[in-house]
Design brief:
This protein is 34% helix and 19% strand. About 5% of the residues have low confidence.
Length: 524
């Protein structure tokens, strides 16, 4: 029997659980048939119930809101819930039947089109303002989100109200001066000073950094502020963050190449100043700073915000429409490419030379992206290079150890005399390195076709799936002595070629890891 406590929002002394709504790594969300408008988060048995009991108690003693409407800004606990006298979870307000979408759906243009969301830039500015305002309330009470990312923010489609979820994962201060630290954060949203540290070391500057990243993505076509190309080598976004390679500042750098879809140069000066401070300094703008700055651009104002005469989805900020300027640049780029292509055709086929329109050659798939060929070429070259270096390094070490070859020219002469054996060794090593770098074809990038070995691991989440042998009710079948709990793992990977994030869903396993076979994959 589940029991709670009487609150100002209702009497939860006796609770009747309804349908399961959602399931996460720590617990499962259920509707309450006895209390419509509220839901129950019940922790899994493997969770640290003692830790969450004390943490929820601290959250109940210091709430960020006092009425149900305000509670929709946060999925905040209303009361603890016990089963047979033992803590199992807490009650929180339900989000109701309104249409909620993850904030990540508003950042990406394709996701907006698929989900029927507004393309109007002004709406994304309002989202950035609303998120900043909510975060400001949290910070005033001493809480930190730490794992602040678009996936942990829900947006109501009509009102553009932002709701922070998974609040029991926040940094929570306790009444006795201690605190309950956060246990996780997500790559690409981790501040530079925390790249090699645990989430428990996070302070308010971590939230300020993650907020600035989200605001930048909302205003700049989903581009990450550290998503840029390097002339020497390419790093992951988190590696760029760690090295503070911010390419979109007011002071341009020649070593970094910004995205060709960026409109950052058209941002108003006060917004660009906050971005420079957020990504080039350790003393970053607060959530209140962002709230106050963005408030100036949430409504039409003469000389500040106005409609675009070319497209109703665009917005003119401080006299410039970034999207129109981007469209003009892309149009000039296409025209330039077409002119270059035409000139090359004319040079290859002079007007007086006859052109043979018939051919017996098989036409290849001209629609396939060129990146596929480049990826395979790089894979072959990398594998062959490693094979050659490994073979000659190993043979030199063996020769020096046996004191059979000392002089370099003698060594080269010996290798030339045994070309066949050298070729065989190099071929064997080439096959080994090719298979090692290639990876499983099933794990290739679904976006650009990059080979599996080019995907870089980001993070994983393990969700309880059930038991290997279980009854119809979902309980463990006690007839089997060895009946482990199975976990359904979801892992995120970054493609180093198309820069998309690929999500693998792995088959259920007692102890899943990165190499566990996958059942499906998708681009997120």
């Amino acid at each position: 029997m589940l029991t709670g406590t009487p609150t100002s929002f209702g009497d939860f002394s006796v609770i009747q659980v309804g349908k399961r709504i959602a399931q996460g790594g720590a617990g499962t969300i259920f509707s309450l048939s006895s209390h419509p408008g509220f839901v129950l988060k019940k922790y899994h048995q493997h969770s640290d119930l003692n830790y969450y009991e004390r943490k929820v108690a601290s959250m109940l003693g210091n709430t960020p809101a006092t009425d149900p409407a305000s509670f929709l800004e946060f999925t905040w606990p209303l009361c603890s819930v016990a089963e047979d006298g033992s803590f199992v979870g807490y009650v929180m307000p339900s989000l109701g039947n309104k249409s909620y979408f993850s904030l990540s759906k508003f950042i990406n243009k394709k996701a907006r089109q698929v989900n029927g969301l507004s393309e109007f830039l002004g709406h994304r500015i309002i989202l950035a303002h609303n998120l900043s305002a909510i975060l400001s309330k949290i910070h005033k009470l001493g809480y930190l989100v730490v794992d602040l990312k678009p996936q942990n923010c829900l947006v109501e489609k009509q009102s553009l109200q932002v709701t922070l979820i998974d609040t029991d994962g926040f940094f929570v201060p306790a009444n006795d001066g201690a605190h309950f630290p956060a246990k996780q954060f997500t790559p690409e949203f981790i501040a530079p000073e925390l790249c090699d540290k645990a989430p428990s070391n996070a302070d308010i500057m971590q939230d300020n950094f993650a907020l600035a990243v989200i605001v930048f993505q909302l205003l700049n076509n989903g581009i990450h502020p550290f998503q840029a190309s390097m002339k020497t080598k390419q790093l992951t976004i988190q590696e760029m963050v760690q090295r503070q390679k911010f390419a979109y500042g007011r002071v341009k750098t020649t070593r970094l190449v910004t995205s060709k879809y960026s409109v950052h140069e058209c941002f108003p000066d006060d917004i660009r100043e906050l971005f420079d401070q957020a990504f080039a300094s350790k003393v970053r703008p607060s959530s209140q700073d962002w709230r106050d700055c963005l408030r100036n651009y949430t409504a039409f104002k003469e000389g500040v915000v106005s409609k675009c005469s070319n497209n109703s989805d665009h917005l003119v900020l401080a006299g410039r429409c970034g999207q129109c300027e981007l469209d003009a640049r892309q149009s000039r780029r296409v025209q330039s490419a077409q002119k270059g292509s035409s000139s090359r055709l004319r040079s290859n086929y002079p007007s007086k030379a006859p052109v043979n329109l018939t051919t017996n050659k098989k036409i290849s798939n001209v629609g396939a992206p060129a990146v596929i060929k480049r990826i395979k070429t790089k894979l072959l070259a990398r594998s062959m290079g490693k094979a050659v270096v490994t073979h000659f390094a190993a043979s030199i070490i063996v020769s020096v150890h046996d004191y059979t070859v000392v002089d370099f020219f003698d060594y080269i002469e010996m290798k030339l005399e045994s070309v066949l054996s050298t070729s065989i060794y190099i071929f064997i090593l080439f096959v080994f390195f090719y298979k090692l770098n290639r990876g499983e074809p099933a794990r290739d990038c679904p976006s650009c076709g990059a080979y599996a070995g080019s995907l870089r691991f980001l993070s994983k989440v393990e969700i309880p799936f059930g038991y290997r042998h279980q009854t119809k009710s979902g309980r463990a079948d006690k007839r089997y002595k060895h009946n482990p709990m199975l976990y359904n793992q979801i892992s995120d990977w970054k493609c180093t070629y198309c820069d998309n994030t690929v999500q693998f869903t792995h088959v259920p396993h007692p102890s899943p890891n990165k190499k566990t076979p996958i059942s499906s994959k998708k681009v997120i």
